[in-house]
Every structure is written in C-alpha cells, then in structure tokens.
Write a structure and sequence with these properties.
Elements (H helix, E strand, L loop, with lengths): L16 E6 L3 E6 L2 E8 L4 E11 L3 E6 L5 E6 L8 E3 L5 E3 L7 E6 L5 E8 L2 E8 L4 E3 L1
Antiparallel strand pairs: 1-2, 2-3, 3-4, 5-6, 6-7, 7-8, 9-10, 10-11, 11-12
Length: 139
Amino acid sequence: MFNLDTHEQKTIVRGGGRSRFVRTGHLLFAQERRLLGVAFDVDRLDAVGEPAALFEARGTSDFDVAEDGTIVYISRPDEFEDDLVWVDRSGVEEPLGAPPREYNYPKLSPDGTRVAVEIRAEGGRDIWIWDIQIGRAHV
C-alpha cells in the first residue's frame, strides 16, 4: 500500500500480486499460482487473520471480481491458448464460448454481462469485449 499524501509505504501481504479489494471486506490476490483472500480492515489498512486459498491456477493467472462477488479468471501454463470461463463458488467451470486465445487482464463489467480482455495478436495486442449474453466479441 502506498499513501499518496504521506508517501508512506506498507506491505499488506508478502509475495502477493494483482490484488483487488471486494465489497465483502476482503482483499483478493494472486500468489504462487493460487488465488487467495484475506479479511481486510479498511480503518487500519491491514489484513485480519490468515489468507485462505480460493483456488489453484494451472500456471500464471489473472482475475477480476464483479460487484456481486462473481470471479472471472484466466489460468494457464506459461505458453498456451486458453478459454474464458465462469467459475461458480464451488469451483465448477463453465466455458463462455470464446475461441481459445492468449487472453490477459480480464475485467468484468459491473453488470456481469461483458468481459474486457487483452489478446495477443500478430503485430501486437488488442482489447476484446466479449459479450457473455450473445456469445460474441466486440473488437
């Protein structure tokens, strides 16, 4: 954590990355091919208790969380093509129907109907908006 006013820096979790604070009062973060969560005290700006693993990734991963707590994530070996999937609270995956690609940095829309992802394409990178309801990309 970095305080813009005082320029003080504070480590909340060692070895974690890609953190997200969610409405339930938890800090979610990636660490060693796992997605973990820990209760977070916003008044003290500190973790409360020990982190708990939410799921294991198959390799590198990235994720985002909708306002209702739904998690979308990308998990893959280091060189790959992967699928976009929903994951329910029990860890069951449901494919979204997007073609296999090298997807990065998923961001779920607030209403949970679209996901923005970076894809690697010949000559660079593009941003896709995958419409979950109609199963089609807006490039």
